[in-house]
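explain this.
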Amino acid sequence: MKDITDYQDKKILVLGLAKSGVSAARLLQKLGALVTVNDAKPFDENPDAQELLEDGIKVVTGGHPLTLLDEGFELIVKNPGIPYTNPIIKGALSKKIPIISEPELAYQVLSGEMIGITGSNGKTTTTTMIQLMLDEKRPAGHAYLAGNIGIPATTVVQKIQSQDTMVTELSSFMLASVTTLKPHIAVITNIFSNHLDWHGTRENYVRDKMHITKNQTEKDYLVINWDNPEWQHLSKQTKAQVVPFSRQDLTEDGAYQKGEDLYFKGEKIIAASDIKVPGVQNVENALAAIAVAKIEGQSNESIVHVLESFGGVKHRVQYVTTWNDRDFYNDSKATDIEATQVALRSFTKPIVLIAGGLDRGYTFEKLEADFKAHVKAIILVGQTSSLLAETAKNAGVPVIEFAHKVLDAVPLAYKASDAGDVVLLSPANASWDQYKTFEVRGDEFINAVQTLQNGKKA
């Protein structure tokens, strides 16, 4: 980490806590700033604020009082989730107080290299693939994960040295306030229409995504999906060297799929079928990661080893194990219909599906075609069991069974499966009717599969 004096004795407000806010506050304190943190959660229910107060940082909790803006702050470090429509943010803008995000602060003290990854879909998987590839047989230093993947950049940056790389997932919320942040390699996996309630319009959303390349120069690289004319057009906004990737064989200037194989600039890297994580979306993620790894000078051997062994990000079509010729996958992160559609379309083998969860008042007709095409049996849990059962019945799924929880569904799914099948947890629903988080639900699936393997009663 760089030893900078820019923030010595400066009054800085950290707006919003959670992991990133706590980490930013601690870094600023280390840099000599006079830090105040403000969080909407009441103090008695806010262990983060309590710990920061014990460490000598001023805390204001229970709301965002506009009177804070009278205290002469020279900078605000904003939690990414707080929109620019928030009154205190609007007030700060009117007073011309600079506002940055937590990764921006991290970048200002970064002594190594930053690779930044954004996009509507595939960010976390692509970020993880890149980190693993760049850390494989690395001659010096390490590649570290950071950012929206759940690891604050301001925490990671404190251990980064000049030979290291910080592989950083960047959300549109984080990118909205970019001032100096400049990845040496920026990756855009794709851009659709997400978070319009936060950004206001799709135009704003796209603009904020493109901030990832805002400060890049001719010495930097933009790796961008080439399979949509809009994304090709967006690439004209950068000063960086454009390295495209395409699953549709639209370019030979970067990474691309041709037939059943993946290439980089005419050189075959790997067969698509050898990638451990299933689905065309992961072929795209792999192509983006290949492009970054090749720019960074990594060997084909290292790239292939990662793609053949990486089982996926936990809870996102995560490969768990193969047992008795059944492949078990944990996709507990699939908390909506669209995510489950992606998971079902990722496999060519017959699927025994475990689904169901919190009833949010919608029905599941959109899944009928995917059930018909991919699902041989379905085990249902949670509040939406009967609704999903109706859809499965209409799709002609021959086996429809019910279980109390995922723990009970796994042995039923195994019993309904045959050699060569996939047993998939992809709920199409949030977990909150039975589980605190989707992670808890996914962990229960993994544990139940291990219990099954070990021959214990589930």
Remarks:
- The chain has three domains: 11-97, 106-309, 318-453.
- Residues 318-453 form a domain with the Protein-Tyrosine Phosphatase; Chain A fold (CATH 3.90.190.20).
- Residues 280-295 form the longest helix (16 residues).
